[in-house]
Amino acid sequence: LKLADNLDTLSAAAAKLREDMAPYYKEVREMWLKDTESLRQELTKDLEEVKEKIRPFLDQFSTKWTEELEQYRQRLAPVAQELKELTKQKVELMQEKLTPVAEEVRDRLRGHVEELRKNLAPYSSELRQKLSQKLEEIREKGIPQAAEYQAKVVEQLSNLREKVTPLVQDFKERLTPYAENLKTRFIALLDDLR
C-alpha cells in the first residue's frame, strides 16, 4: 500500500511538473517561431519564385500528355468497341493489338518525364543552393537569442532536478526496506531449495 501511495505521489508530482513546464515550453516555442519567421518567409519566397519559373514546364508537360492521351483514346475507341463483341478466340488477337500501344504510351511518358526532369534540373539546383546558403547563414550567425534559449532550458532542467530529486530519494528510502525484505526471503527460499 505504501508503494502504491509512493507511486501516486510520484505520478502527481510528474503531472504538476508537466503543468509547471507548460508556460516555459510555450514561451520558448513562441520565441523560436518569432525568431525563425523571417527565415520561413525567405524560404517561402524562394519556393514561390522557383514555382513560378517551373510552372511553364509543368503546364507544357500537362498539355502534351493530355493531347497524347486523347490521341490514344481515339485510337483505342474502335478496339474497345470490338472488345464488346469479342469471342474468347479474339481475346489473344486483341491483346496483341493492345500490347504495342501500351508500350508506346509507356515509352512516350518516360520521354516526357525525362524532358521535364531535364528542364527542372537547374531550378532544383538553384533551390538546393539557396537552402544550403540559408542553413549556412544560420550556422554562421546562429539563431537570435540562442543563448537565451539555452539559459531557459538549463534553468528548467535545474528546476526539474530540484523538484524530482526529493521525490526520488523519498521513493528510494521507502522502497529499500521492501527490497531488503524481498531479498532476504528470496535467499531463504534458495537455501530451502538447496
UniProtKB/TrEMBL annotation:
Residues 33-89 form a coiled coil. GO terms for cellular component: chylomicron; extracellular vesicle; high-density lipoprotein particle; low-density lipoprotein particle; very-low-density lipoprotein particle. Keywords: Cholesterol metabolism, Coiled coil, HDL, Lipid metabolism, Lipid transport, Lipoprotein, Repeat, Secreted, Signal, Steroid metabolism, Sterol metabolism, Transport. The keyword Cytoplasm does not apply. InterPro entries: ApoA_E, Apolipoprotein_A1/A4/E. One of its GO terms (molecular function) is cholesterol transfer activity. It is found in: Secreted. One of its GO terms (biological process) is lipoprotein metabolic process. Participates in the reverse transport of cholesterol from tissues to the liver for excretion by promoting cholesterol efflux from tissues and by acting as a cofactor for the lecithin cholesterol acyltransferase (LCAT). Belongs to the apolipoprotein A1/A4/E family. This is Apolipoprotein A-I. It comes from Aptenodytes forsteri.
